[in-house]
Structure formats: C-alpha cells, structure tokens
Amino acid sequence: MTKQKRVAAIHDISGFGRCSLTVALPILSAAGVECSVMPTAVLSTHTGGFTGFTYRDLTEDLLPIARHWQSLSLAFDALYSGFLGSFAQLELVGEIFDRFRTKDNLILVDPVMGDEGRLYSVYSPAMAKGMAKLCAKADVIVPNLTEAAFLLEEEYRPGPYEESFVRETAQRLSDLGPKMVVLTGVSFDDRLLGAASFDRDTGKLEFCARERVEGYYHGTGDVFGSTLLSGLMNGASLTEATRLAVDFTHGCILRTKAEDTDRRYGVDFERELPRLIEQLQGKNGLQK
Questions:
Q1: Which of 33, 82, 104, 261 has an alpha carbon within 20 to 30 A of 237's alpha carbon?
Q2: Are 210 and 200 in contact (CB under 8 A)?
Q3: Could you please report the per-residue DSSP string of 139-172?
C-alpha cells in the first residue's frame, strides 16, 4: 500500500459560496490526499456578487501556525496557495514555502488576481509584482490569461489565441521560476475553451479543451487548481492532470447550468466527486 500524500492548502475560507478552502479540502480529500489547511482569512461569503459580507484577516496567524507545524515535525508532499489579499500575505507565504520546501515536494501557486483583463479590486499592478516573486518559488503555477499578462507586466490580450502566443506566454512564465505552467482560459476559436500545460524540462506544450459554456461561474478556478493537484498527487503526468482538471471542471459547470441555480453560489462539484474518484481509481484512471 502506498503512503498517503499530504498537502498544505493556504487559502481563505468563505462560510458560504463554494471557493477556496471549501473547494480545495473536499476535492483533495476525495482524491485520497490528506489536506491540512492554513486559512488566510475567514469571510461570511465570498466577495463575488455578495455585499455586506464579514471579513476577518488572519495574516498574523500564518507564521505561528507554520512554527507549530514545524515543532511537530510535519512534512508535506505539496504546498498549495490561492488568493492572497495583501503584500504581507504574499511575503509570509513565500517564507512558509521556504520553511517546508524539500527536494521532493511540490509547490503549486494559483496566482488568483483577476479575470477578463482586469485585476480584482483589492489588487494593484504593484501587488502583481509581489505575486510574480511568489510564483518564482513554485514548481507549478496555474494562471488564467489575465493573470499571466499581469505577471509578465504586459497588456492583456483577449482570445481566441494562436498556438505560438500561448507557447511564448507559457515559456516566459516559466522563465520566472516555475518548471511547469498550466494556463487556463485558452481558446483557439469561439467553440472550445480549455487549458494549456507547459513543461520546461521537456519543452512539451499540450492543449485540452471542451465545448464552451457561456456565462461566468464562481469558484471554477479553485475547482480546477485543486483537481490538477489531486491528479499530480496521484501520480499523473502534468498532461494527464490538466486533462483531469479540464474534464472535472467542465462537468461541474454543465451540472450547475442544468440545475439553473444562482451562479454566485459556485458550481455543484460535490455530486461530480464520484466521477472524479472513478477517473483516479478506475481501470482507465490515472492510478489504482
């Protein structure tokens, strides 16, 4: 029997609205991965479309949590960060990466900063530079094309894209430090939408796309990143893990669209989890 993998997930947690830790924890757990959580903030709801939400910043708790974990000699097969709301958190998470990095573990950064060509309201171009420094410490980063533009300090370019543009963007992001880059929101026409994975060691660029579903669905970036990491922790190659994440995220969106629920609530990933487990464990899955 193989040793269970353990991941430290460094994200905020919203009491309502599927995103961040309320997505990462159940997806990684369903994939058979032990998920330890380091909350960066606690909110009553996520901030996408809701007003009047409560917010408690936990920046001052991050290093004490890390020190306590170190006192217990805890080790992690992966460290996984998502939305970080301040310069202080960017710097602290970088320090936490340094504290727990080993020659064998994996650091995945989802540089959650914006979408559709715009930064989120709490972010600035200066903070995007701080995120670029954090990405330099990662093995894998998972930006969308908006975040890629800000990480590279260039103008955002809307799709559809040419393969040459996607390759150049992925290579330049890898030059920041990470060995592997997964770009989301990649499209070559108006019909398909998906992701591109780039491995610097092999120079391989792979694409995976599914039929586009119109509309904005909250939390899908967290679903994608958590599923990607689930695949990697189960022995999948970067290409296989990207395909798994595209398929699972697309399935969650289709289910949510069919249910016609309020999109602010996030996607119904819970009832898609059995399919994810089947893909990971089944005959045609990634690992038995």
A1: 82
A2: no
A3: SEE--BHHHHHHHTTS----S---HHHHHHHHHH
CATH 3.30.930.30 for domain 6-281, yes or no, is no
The one-letter amino acid code at 167 reads R
Structure tokens at 34: 């032990």
Tokens of 55: 């917010």
The distance of Cα 60 from the centroid of its chain, to the nearest Å, equals 24
Map out the domains of the chain as residue ranges: 6-281
- Length of the chain equals 288
Q: Which residues contact 20 (CB under 8 A, 6 or more apart)?
A: 11, 12, 13, 14, 46, 82, 83, 219, 222
At 176, is the secondary structure helix, strand, or coil?
coil
Q: Are strands 140-141 and 180-186 parallel, antiparallel or unpaired?
A: parallel
Q: How many CB atoms lie within 10 A of CB 155?
A: 8
pTM above 0.85, yes or no: yes
Q: Strands of the chain (E only): list them.
A: 6-16, 34-45, 55-57, 78-81, 106-109, 114-115, 118-119, 140-141, 180-186, 192-199, 204-211
